[in-house]
Each structure stands twice: as structure tokens, then as C-alpha cells.
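REQUEST ID: PR-0412
SUBMITTED BY: lab tech R.K.
PRIORITY: routine
TASK: structure prediction, single protein chain
INPUT:
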Amino acid sequence: MSRLLIIVTLVAAAFTGASATQGWTECNSVFPDPTNLPYEVPNAVRVCRSGVLAISYDKDMIDPALSMYYVTPDQAKNLIPGRDQFYEDPDLQSMGITQAAVEDQCFNSDYNRGHLAPSHIMSGSAASKQAVYTMANIAPQGIQFNGGCWADLEGHVVNWVAANNALHIITGVSYTSR
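STATUS: complete
OUTPUT:
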């Protein structure tokens, strides 16, 4: 199965935060227009992490379909270094939805855990940084791609936001079979 992570859209706008919930009600602030939400795949569920990360999780593919988040220049200039621990998403667990285990065999010498909402970009606060380590935000990503051009793109986005304006960002997983 071929996978490719893509940035779907980047839009400038404003932000407020909230607590983690099922559904996107508490994450409305991450959308440029909450009344005009992006396309979702059939059989997906919505998860909100810490009011800063909205995830559409594809139950059939056992992967996120897309993650949406918002980053401001202040957040991009004040990044918390280091990594957090990956964890299985508690909302998906409470709904009985299968998700990749933290130590799943698909994460091996060819693929690693690719954040749709990247740790680097979301490291403006401890809550937002921790939110992106949910397995609901993780898809297997080729090691060369994740550590190469994808990491470069993440760095360019952080630098652009820090120097310019806030962005709403939507990142998705594309399958050749979808």
C-alpha cells in the first residue's frame, strides 16, 4: 500500500483553545470556517486533542485521514525542544476503535511514526506538543521521506509562520487504493 503525506491547505486566521473531547466541537477554533469543514472519508470518527488538534480518524485504514491545527508566530518562535512519548488515543479506546499500537510491527527499519500534525510545529506549548503524540495523529511514513524532505517542509513552515502570519494547516494521508 503506497502512502503519501500531503499538506492540503494553508490559511491565515485566529485561535482559541479548549480541552480534549470526542468530536470537533472543542476544536472549532482550528478551522478557518467551522461551517465549511474539509472532506472526510466515509467511516471516519472525529477526535479533538487539547482544543488544538482536530483529527479525522479512518477506522477502515486504522490511520488518521487528516489532522487540522493552527499555529501562530508566537508559538513558532517559542518551541519546546525534545520529544514526548507516543500514546494510544484515549478517545479511540473509549469508542472501541482499533488503532496502531505504539510498538506496532509496521514501524520498522523502513517506516517510522509520521506525525500528521508535526511535533516541531506544535511545540509552542506543553499541551499542544503532547497532543500530537497520540497514535490517532500517526501514520507509517518512509524513514527517508520523514527525515528528509518532510522534515525540511516542516522547518520551512515554522520559519514562515514565525516571520509572517498564523496558519490553519490541514495535513492528510492519501492512499492509492482510496
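NOTES: The chain has five helices and eight strands.
REVIEWED BY: pending
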